Amino acid sequence: xxxxxxxxxxxxxxxxxxxxxxxxxxxxxxxxxxxxxxxxxxxxxxxxxxxxxxxxxxxxxxxxxxxxxxxxxxxxxxxxxxxxxxxxxxxxxxxxxxxxxxxxxxxxxxxxxxxxxxxxxxxxxxxxxxxxxxxxxxxxxxxxxxxxxxxxxxxxxxxxxxxxxxxxxxxxxxxxxxxxxxxxxxxxxxxxxxxxxxxxxxxxxxxxxxxxxxxxxxx
Length: 219
Prior knowledge:
Blueprint: H1 8-24, H2 34-56, H3 72-96, H4 110-116, H5 121-150, H6 157-172, H7 179-197, H8 203-218
Helix pairs in contact: 1-2, 1-5, 2-5, 3-7, 3-8, 5-6, 5-8, 6-7
């Protein structure tokens, strides 16, 4: 498949459908699936919708960055830089930004349950790794590029697209303005910038996302 230039009204229609599925599926919770099963279910539906929209526009995930890299070393270097930038931005927020928020009781995390049952750890990690892959497809691969196409006539369309997808990424992980939404938004910002600056290859971001989520589970 080629990667034809997307018209703004096509990008808008695709975004309306895509975001409706992304946020609409969050209203569905299947008890038997548990936390990670539901997250996986939502991402599968969202990425499936994006795949259908890509095919309708004669596009492919390969055109958006899901392509074989010519250099494994380059992927590893970019992955390392993304991780360093992410950690540095979160540390800066913890030092200078967290005081802007009043202290609140932390919500119960599914990680607590995982630590109580070591037999579930491997299965959970597999879900997390797949989820990391799917999130990069939908947030950096699809969302960012569709916002860029929508804002194509604006000189700073790429910068705005990176910012918008970071805001959405942060919001949908928390649904409020909180330390969690800010730190997640910072991750989306670093990842979005890295995606654009590194030639729009998704594999370094997928790798970095897997590392971050794995650390969050086993730390």
